[in-house]
Amino acid sequence: MNGLTEMLKGVLEGVVLQKISQGETYGYEITRYLNELGFEDIVEGTVYTVLIRLEKKQLLTVTKRKSKIGPMRKFYTLNAAGVAYLASFWEKQAFIEEKLRMIKGEA
Amino acid sequence: MNGLTEMLKGVLEGVVLQKISQGETYGYEITRYLNELGFEDIVEGTVYTVLIRLEKKQLLTVTKRKSKIGPMRKFYTLNAAGVAYLASFWEKQAFIEEKLRMIKGEA
DNA sequence: TACTGCTATATTGTATTGCTAAGTAGATAA
DNA sequence: TTATCTACTTAGCAATACAATATAGCAGTA
Q: Gap from A39 CA to D11 C1', in Å?
């Protein structure tokens, strides 16, 4: 799927949060997950900037640990604010999807 | 619904195209329509920039006509490229919605 | 006339965001 | 040594939604 860039704005943040909410993970793994899921063009750089942004917004807790097969990893989990933010994301997404159905004439 | 701004990026363009596809219309009317639909915070300035962008992308045909109750109106309709672009928008949206369901664990 | 309000479009600047591109660095296998 | 995979960082760019402001036509009213 091409030309998704603009439509991912806002959505990508929620996707990353959702992934983290399902269990402690790190940037590289998140990127691989998104690629496998079908977001083939999303690269590491994009995910890392999202993670740093979420960290600045204080939605994540971070732990640095060694990896056996490479350099240090930064493991992320959601804190309470992150959980709330994620819930808010899904509400917004549901709202937009509902309005889109209405505009399209399916409701 | 607050904080939709970032999530509207990419979507708003499709919404405006869809509205125009349903019959000749103009910026002010589109804004009113979106407000009534529930996008309460979308203002004229936002819609006009979208329209000008779509016009530059050559997706619209434009006709200026007088109004009895105010200044000149710019009426928009979709051309062939606009129809194709709109179809592409809905495909991308369906793709993203599908992936979101997968991530959320509903698929 | 002067004003107020509604209709209608245009423009400028800003913040946010996804992405590109380049770099740094550890571990492992050839 | 070299290459490859893992793993994170950063500078800068392009696109977008939005705020703010400006311009202007028309109707009603005092």
A: 25
* Residue span of the structural domain in which B46 resides: 5-104
Q: How far apart are CA A81 and CA A89, in angstroms?
A: 12
- Cα B3 to Cα A90: distance, rounded to the nearest angstrom: 12
E strand intervals along A1-107: 60-67, 70-78
Q: Which bases of chain C are contacted by protein, using any atom under 7 A from a CB?
A: 6-13, 16-22, 25-28
pLDDT tens digits, B38-78: 999 999 999 999 999 999 999 999 999 988 888 899 999 99
Residues in A touching B5 (Cβ below 8 Å):
10
Strand pairing report for B70-78 and A70-78: unpaired
What's the pLDDT at B107?
54
Tell me which residue of A67, A100, A1 sits closest to B17, measured CA to CA: A100
Number of structural domains found in chain B: 1
The CATH number given to whatever domain includes residue A23 is 1.10.10.10
Distance between CA B73 and CA B28 in Å, rounded?
A: 9
- Phi then psi for residue B41, to 5 deg, are -95, 0
